[in-house]
Amino acid sequence: MPPDPPVPRGAPARDAAFTPCPDAGTEDPGEKGATMASDKKLRKGDKVSWKSHGQDVGGKIEKKITERTEAAGRTVDASSEEPQYEVRSDNSGKTAVHKPGALHKKGKSS
């Protein structure tokens, strides 16, 4: 195995005994619960918001996607265990697809 690269000045030294957790970086942000919507509570017609290019965007859920499909101009790799939601922006009228953890439920749907 090649030696580790030198540690940049001012950076903490790497602990030789440190082993990264195999699950590191795979935590679903929706599990924290505070502002993330649980996918069991999301339904077609719900008003939601999400971040896009640093801005809050509002819209409505068009449909729940539970299988690999084409939506919003891309391939969506969803399943019943890991659904995704197609949403329509109130501002632009365009559709996008997001995982439940990226959506924030807003008030009542109409």
Strand arrangement, largest sheet? 6-5-2-1-7
Going by helix content, strand content and strand pairing, the class is mainly beta
Provide the CATH architecture of the domain at 37-105: Roll
N to C succession of SSEs: EEEEEEE
Mean pLDDT: 78
Number of H- or I-type helical stretches: 0
Which blocks of ≥5 consecutive residues have pLDDT under 50? Answer: 21-36
The biggest sheet amounts to: 5 strands, antiparallel
Rg from alpha-carbon coordinates = 19 Å
Rough shape? extended
CATH topology of the domain at 37-105: SH3 type barrels
InterPro entries: Hva1_TUDOR
Protein name: Hypervirulence associated protein TUDOR domain-containing protein
Pfam families: Hva1_TUDOR
Biased composition (Basic and acidic residues): 59-71
Write out key terms for the chains shown.
110 residues; mainly beta; SH3 type barrels; 5-stranded antiparallel β-sheet; two-stranded antiparallel sheet; 7 strands; 32% strand; extended
Report on the architecture of this protein.
The structure is a single chain. The protein has 110 residues and is an all-beta fold. It has a domain at 37-105: Roll (SH3 type barrels), CATH 2.30.30. Helices cover 0% and strands 32% of the residues. A 5-stranded antiparallel beta sheet has the order 6-5-2-1-7, with no helix packed on it. It has a two-stranded antiparallel ribbon with strand order 3-4. Strand 1 and strand 2 (55-65) form a beta hairpin. The chain is extended and about 55 Å long.
